[in-house]
């Protein structure tokens, strides 16, 4: 069912309008430092149901609740659990910021069952932009907000991206300008006896290491084995498709100079073999290949901020220019050490290249 989608700014009057819509159970896209979120009242099963419908998100996939400050967020967690002290320490160190914590739910938590998919745990975060925290304070309730894109697609980094994904499926979009970080929050599970990294993000294992050291260190499950580093598409069923452009994505390998025209995602100053010069951030080369350099100086923070915009742009331009696929850097080029920012780049590209039609677990 289509509805009119209002575009709101971040002035006081507009934030009051957005807050009233959220309190009334409507969907409102909100800016965060990571990506734009599709917000709804996290205390209302009905409002959260709207998120799943608008995104086409499977209902077993829980949502992250957003708060204006750490005190409000941690009040939803149990008063006592083994890693409570660590949660408080990480909140002081990284909030507001791109870190989500999974914690045991307080028996009196207001977060609805649908937001947490019926789990005994909840995921909480305090986002960075002051206007967003002002909005959250005005609403006075936690706001569930997964990325404001259709399920399995590329996360939105600006209000226009949200319009392209969800126009007519939500009441309003708060335009807070481009999301500076550009990749989703790091998720750390603190509900057990030891901290566990559930999703890599802008806060890296190296950043978390010191705080986690006294709790047995940060465990992180290795990603599913993949043939994609060797330049082939991964085997079906191995991986979860997500963050996916419509063009197939191939990781690493040689650019095909004769056959299929390729859209090129580049990283760093080195030129792919046999190709001309690709100076600058993006363009179309003499052979008609669109190219986008994540970071010509191989800066991984810049690469994070340019990843989703690059996937979107290459997808559109690649299709327009007749490309048959998108070629991205090999994962080990992006992520040589497994503890820094390369981890998040490799994670998102691994999913973008995963076989389509698998059931996504996170969107
Ligand atoms: P997003 O799609 O960015 O909102 O991220 C939601 C992701 O957070 C889910 O797909 C889960 O991976 C994770 N998550 C949220 N709540 C929980 C929870 N209670 N327990 C474990 N993971 C959670
Ligand atoms: Mg998402």
TrEMBL record:
It catalyses: L-threonine + hydrogencarbonate + ATP = L-threonylcarbamoyladenylate + diphosphate + H2O. Its EC number is 2.7.7.87. SUPFAM superfamilies: YrdC/RibB. GO terms for biological process: regulation of translational fidelity; tRNA processing. Residues 12-203 form the YrdC-like domain. The keyword Nucleotide-binding applies. GO terms for cellular component: cytoplasm. ATP binds at residues 57, 61, 121, 147, 155, 199, 243. One of its GO terms (molecular function) is tRNA binding. It is an enzyme of class 2 (transferase). L-threonine binds at residues 34, 66, 125, 145, 185. Keywords: ATP-binding, Cytoplasm, Nucleotide-binding, Nucleotidyltransferase, Transferase, tRNA processing. It comes from the Bacteria. It is found in: Cytoplasm. Its main location: cytoplasm. PANTHER family: SUA5, THREONYLCARBAMOYL-AMP SYNTHASE. Belongs to the SUA5 family. Required for the formation of a threonylcarbamoyl group on adenosine at position 37 (t(6)A37) in tRNAs that read codons beginning with adenine. This is Threonylcarbamoyl-AMP synthase. The lineage of its organism: Bacteria, Pseudomonadati, Pseudomonadota, Alphaproteobacteria, Acetobacterales.
